[in-house]
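tool_call: predict_structure(chain=1)
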Amino acid sequence: ANLAATMILLSSVLLAPLQAEAQGFWSEDTPKIPMAASWQREKAELPPYTAPRTPDGVPDIGGVWGGVGGDGLSYVEEHD
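tool_result:
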């Protein structure tokens, strides 16, 4: 019984990394860091970012602004 428990524990420890690796979101050939050469190439091909502006030319910061935890209690402007 003790040998069986030891074997189960040992196999669990040895197989745990395989189980964790199988949970990955990206495929194995995806570059692992953002500074990978492919990301630098793709980034260079993107058009320059232009922030949205309101008709009078100021940055458009409209939208949903939630507080910490998304409680909706932090507002940019006064609300009823």
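agent: The chain has a mean pLDDT of 74. Proceeding to next step.
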